[in-house]
Amino acid sequence: MNANSILDILVKQVQKFPYLSIFIVALALRWLLLGLGFVDYWGDAQHNLIISKLTLENGFVYTDFKDRELAWLPLYRYLGSFIMLITGTYSLTVIHAFNIIIGAFTASITAYLGVTLINKKTGIYIGLVTACIPYMIVFSYVSVAEMVGALLLLGWLFGLIKNNYWLVFICTALGALTREEITFLIGISFVPLFYSKNYKGIVYSVLGLILGLGIWSWWSYLNTENLLSWLLNRFQSTSSSTAFYANEGNFLVEYMLTPFGSLIQTFPLILFFIWFRKSESKKPFKNKEWVSLIGYLTIVHWIFIFIAQFKIIAYPDPRLFILTLPIAIIWFFSLFQRGYFRKFVTRRVIFFLVGISLIQLVVPYYRQYSLQPRKEVGKWIQENIEDDQIIWSDQAVAIVESKRDPKLYISSDKLLPLSIRGTQEQDEYIHSMLEELDIEYLTSYNAPFDYTQALWPQIAELQPFEWNGITFVPVFSYSPYKRDEGSIHALLREQFEAQLQIGSIWRLYRN
Fold first, then answer.
1. Cα 150 vs. chain centroid, distance in angstroms?
2. Residue of 246 and 325 predicted with greater confidence
């Protein structure tokens, strides 16, 4: 039995209950990864978890342990709060379960749009690819907002296609409160929508953006008396991270090959554009308006990421392409169905490439070790520091790993507001806060989210030092893993940890 026959049999079985079947396939693949030991590799997941917990405990008033609430759009964190309220569990596990359901549902909705825009059989192919493509699986369990954002973008598009403008309005408003890129993508859609005279779609999208961004700006004003403080906070956060990771390496490698490599990782189907050609089909272009809109959004989003890497984002990780990945798959299959690829590109070859691309799941599996120094810091705190001791820490990963109440930690942003940093009052202010809060321990990790080494560069030397009558003594440090065996696992882990910084804990003694 050849590969085409197997694929045809699979599609025939799925056709009986297409959307449910695709949902189950997607759900099973995502649960399988968790069962194999895949865990979050973004520290943002732990930060989101802490924000959700503190927000729930603060009567659903949006709260961040770093006092940076306005830097992070709130919808995904509020969803986490509701999940904690329903389950009574402060754990990433329940958030993973929620994200997995969202990811599987996204695959089904993508299939439905494929059926609507192209045909039933192609829609099933689209759903199966969405269910199986590696980074759609990965970001269905990683606890960040991208998958929810992708679903909301699909909901907005679904509303436009079905003339359900209330759905357009709701998904736009919620999307604007989920990821900033959704506001950008919906905003740039007004050009093709205006060209196709879809004025109602534009009006309801604008109203949705006004509601979503209006709510967020109103909250910003209540906290800072500045309607745009949220935008300034977000820009400051991303630009500081970009500056921290900036280097003077080869321009072609850093700004062209690296982002293009991320795009291929996320959307391996792009490789087939090597065989792109002018279509010879004479058939009327079914749903040309919507397919053109999808292609337009996909390409503009990619271009935006390539430009944004210079100032707005630190580096173009596959995560950044997830928002438009479902519609990119629809766009690709619409081109395939219309004969825009040479005869080499067949259904069998497409699914063979998707299957081969699953090998790259090795990367997110071993990227989980990028959090290891911060996890080890948290484990040491859990085992060695009393539960009522306040600790200075900017490390969300360590806080979650320590299994202590996040309220027992205080961040640099709370200890040292931006208005005081770099001024003559800085040292005196820090000293008074250390005494007032009776802080005896602090954690340190050289990263843009951690301010301790900017204050005390001596920390990098891991030797005791004195500062304003206080002696800083290292009591724990974790250096990146060095293999002592020849196994492939040890080799890969070493490669992924090689570039990491040392995580450390310091005891403060008053002289």
1. 11
2. 325
What does the angle CA 81 – CA 84 – CA 87 come to, to the nearest 5 degrees? Answer: 150
C-alpha 86/C-alpha 107 separation (Å) is 25
Question: Residues 222-277: pLDDT tens digits?
Answer: 988 888 888 877 777 776 666 666 665 667 777 788 889 999 999 999 999 999 99
Q: CA 310, CA 209: separation in Å to the nearest integer?
A: 27
Cα 12 from Cα 7, distance rounded (Å): 9
β-pairing, 470-478 vs 465-467, is antiparallel
90 with 402: CB under 8 angstroms?
Answer: no
- Joined together, the tokens standing for residue 280 give 């010879």
Strand runs (DSSP E) across 242-329, as ranges?
none
CA 301 – CA 365 distance, rounded (Å): 27
Instruction: Give the residue among 413, 402, 396 at the shortest CA–CA distance from 49.
Output: 396
Report the interhelical angle of 75-87 vs 146-161 (nearest 10°). Answer: 110
Give the start-to-end residue ranges of the domains of the chain.
Answer: 3-366, 369-510
pTM over 0.85: yes
